[in-house]
Amino acid sequence: MLKKILLIDDEDKLRQLLARIIQLEWEDLEVFQASNLKAGYQILKTKDIDVIICDVKLPDGNGVEAVMEIKKLQPFSEVLLMTAFGQIPDGVQAIKNGAFDYMTKGDDNNKIIPLIYKAFEKVEIIKRVNKLEEKVGKKYAFDQIIGESKEINKAITLGKKVSQTDATVLLLGETGTGKEVFAQAIHVESKRNSKSFVALNCSAVNKDLLESELFGHVAGSFTGAIRDKKGLFEEANQGTLFLDEIGEMPLELQAKLLRVLETGEFLKVGETLATKVNVRVIAATNRNLEQLSEEGLFREDLYYRLSVFTILLPSLKERVSDIPLLIKYFVGLNAVKMNIKEPIIEDSYIEILKKHYWKGNVRELKNIIERSLILIEGDSLDDRSLPYGFSIESNNKNALSQMALSENERRHIQKVLAYTKGNKAEAARLLEIGVATLYRKIEEYKIH
User: Is the pLDDT assigned to residue 160 strictly greater than 90?
Assistant: First the structure.
């Protein structure tokens, strides 16, 4: 595909020389030129430009400030700024505004071509990721949810039906089954889709702050409340509020939530006048709310109000036939993000994953595939690509490596550290262990 680059500089000779140098480097390149920002913006409005090289000092504006406008016109493009007088504050601000890099004219002649190569590579990756995400469902429409099993199709059918109403929805399912994805899909296919979708995990917020997070507060209502704050109900007005882990909401807040659901009104913390909103609520939990209400841990009236329409999302072990489709999707998505060639997926690899118990469901599968791509040897995913400690729970037996476990673990940690280029925090995330544990393992195995 033909690459396109735009040069914006009021020094005609310098701009034309740079254009010539660039054209000699790439055969599949179209170069556009502009002597000011106005002319540059006009080109950006009519042409799909990959990389923009822009002078900082221009007759009709400043290149540092122009970066944000350029990114509005061409979100997937990359901007390289050049100036005759390099200033550190300008460079810092340029990067904050979204520039790819900031160079001083004359001092960076040997850097410009490698930087353009890197910018083109980044643009290509961003475009590929965006195309893949649009294709397979990052926008969460129901027809983009991956799976063809009877179980997932039943949930999708129910979701499509309820999305056309304003009914409160309760999503039930194990951890990692995609409850937020379903909530997004209901919102996207509803008449509220032009308004905000706001999500909150009720278990992730301290219970003392949860009321303020949901309903907002007025300045001075408690220590640290130095200004008025909107709550998530206000943020989601006319749209959808997704309350995940609703079973973890404290009893004292449940009454306030029930009032909003019944009247559309609530009181901010420290406020005496009610605020009225029009919000659709979708709640989700992996717990048995009916049992919790019988135990006095969840209000029975709130449970009945939330469960106007209930959708049960199947676990991965209930939709094993969807695993090959999910593997193909996650392999493709991660290969693009990691900028590697999409590998061949061996049947043996698929069969191993189909036999796994998947306690963490789709979320766990996604994580295992990301780690497999880090560990891959050659151009195929097979059993050697599986992370250390991965086992198949089939007939209550675990698959054990023939190699000593400690040696297996050492090699696994080395591969992950190599992938993260020594970033121990990222390595610990991928290994699903604490950073302190990782440091201990590095010392124990004398990994350098």
Answer: yes
